[in-house]
Give the backbone structure.
Amino acid sequence: MIASLAREVLVSLRTALEALGAYTLFGLRLVAETPRALLRFGLVVRQIHNAGAHSLVIIMMSGLFVGMVLGLQGFDLLERFGSEESLGTAAALGLLKELGPVVTALLFAGRAGTALASELGLMRATDQLAAMEMMAVDPVRRVVMPRFLGGTLSMPLLAAIFSLIGLFGAQLVGVQLMGVDSGQFWSQMRGAVEFGDVMEGVLKSAVFGVACSLIAVYEGYHSVPTAEGVGRATTRTVVISSVVVLLLDYMLTAVML
Amino acid sequence: MTAEQRRDANAVVRLRDVHFTVSRRPILEGVDVDIERGSVTAIMGPSGTGKTTLLRLITGQLLADRGLVEVDRRDVATMSRPELYRMRRRMGMLFQNGALLTDLSVYENVAFPLREHTNLPERLLRHVVLTKLHAVGLRGAWHLMPAELSGGMARRVALARAIVMDPELLIYDEPFVGLDPISMGMVLRLIRRLNDSLGLTSIVVSHDVREISAVADFCYLVSGGGIVASGPPARLANSEQEEVRQFMHGLPDGPVPFHYPSPDYASQLRQMPK
């Protein structure tokens, strides 16, 4: 019983290590291909449009609602200490440093990540990648790289938009609904939020962008070329991305605090 | 010089004693094939006998476990990736389902290899693309997306794309699957016409015996992991060899069993499902 359990654990550990190795090798290949891919920036711009612009509505709506909830909860909490004027600061720091990058990354994995993985998986299932190989065109260079870079570059932009709209939502509830003084709301925020706080959010969203895009293109490119295989790749993209984003968030926060 | 020696001397593609295994299951065992320059060669055989595997070995998408695969007297197994890509630029391949890039229009699909490998000015590129689309009868469909095409049209667009770089070797993987008789006739005529007018060498993998026999110069019949017969289509059609007769005339009984290896029917019916 114990021996079989130990064997199971060892097998799982080995599988996880193999997956990590494969991800690392694939990631290194993408890094090596980046300078060449940037030369064909038109392809990357199209993918920024696909991954970024197409995610805008969901990001903006989510940002608005998250900001509004933050306004309500923040007001309720701060009112107990008589410091509801600090709502702007609390909302800004919460959005810029945590909620903006993390929620955007989770939404990005669900919207753009799954689209990337299923698109690549379907391209494999319908022999489009094999056809490219036969036309002497490297699919990693032509198809995977622009999508990886498009996703990576979109994430910080989306996170910034999320935080901006979130602040608007917090202001809407705090100032317009709950009656916090508008001048206090903005001036306290400007006084307390530092450049380093903004950069922390930018750095986090950039790291999450690389992680989510890498996971999506890896899972899609290596999917089993069947309907079930593509479905599994899409699910794995969301699950792995979500866990990795939360893990990285803790690690980055611990390092930067 | 015998016909066999002539084929060997004039071969663009040579396979010698090729073995290939998937998950310990032998797919090809000791296959010898010569593809003569300028000919249309058919590779026929029942489904699942390794015909597509044979093509993938020739194009370097797969590597043989044992044996020699040569294209233009060069061993495919020893080629580096850039060399493999250089070889493939002289090949065109028509996939079973066309494999058109679904996010590009018909025009852009055909232009794709040119855009990737050449710096042709747009006017010249347009000229080449429209010429190739005209050759397959789809010049008027240049603006359509792949989702708007019928199976036959998609196959013909893929054919235009396969010949756009003026390849020396054109490979067709099951080009007739799922086509209506009119589209099938068109593709058949195109295979012969393109081969003769462009001076190509063509390899056609198919199990549509009657159709492919009408255009092929030479046929190989693959079964049970090996070549069971080869020769001009007429010779294969008149062969007395049992395996060849069964395949060429579509007979249900013969050396190729209808049933997958199974246990006794009655005892299996009586057995309770686990």
About this structure: Chain A has a mean pLDDT of 92. Chain A touches chain B through 15 residues (CB under 8 Å).
